[in-house]
Amino acid sequence: TNSKNFNNQLSGVVYGSLNVSGTTTNNNTLSNNGRINVNSTGIFNNNLTLTNDSLLIVSGSIKNYKNGIITNNDLIKNYKNIFNYGTITNNKTLSTFDSSVFNNYNVLNNISTGTLDTRSIFINKKTNATNSDSVDLTGIEGVFTNSGSYINSKNMFTNEGLLTNNGTITNSDSITITANGRVTNHNIITNDSLITNNGKITNYSTKTITNNKIITNNNIILNAGIVNITHTTGVLNNNLTYTNKSSATTTNYGIINLN
Length: 259
Description:
- This protein is mainly beta.
- Helix content is 0%, strand content 57%.
- It starts with a strand and ends with a strand.
- The relative contact order is 0.08.
């Protein structure tokens, strides 16, 4: 348990290594300029401030509790579990890999300089979500704000909360927006695979959604910007409400099915 300041340092080309194989709890400030390895049996609980300026490898579990703030200024690699009940801010590179889990219950910020690349289960949770750590999340919703680059490279991203896109989103596999989920697009979304909307997508004026594969809308899409459905491969299956506002342009070179 860390209750004061802990600095994992770099000296020349020699990195300090912090290896977590049991349960480690940070209740104060931990600054990493070396290497932190949360091994397969390790659990790292963060209750206050963790700043990563080098490399953080998660092969076990990181649990960032409600007062916890994780700031990534370099590289985080998640091979197993990240559970965010507090705030995570990514300023550079956060990558998840096959068979990992990344659950955001509270605040996730991908800043303009940040790249978030997910290759396994990633869920932006709904308000009052239940969890295995018995954290009281009354009135707390997963809020994912992307101002950089978010790439869903593989597997499924499920949005049960609020996703605000001010940067670029590229979907190469599957995105599902649940009944409670909302997506507000203030810049660019590109779909190269499958998006299923059971909630609400709002595309703002002059902003762009490009659909190169399949979007299935089972609830509400409000378009005040530009929606491009590309030649041959682009398909929009509209099963409920698609509103093209006065400022909007929908360009179809593919297929629109009005069901």
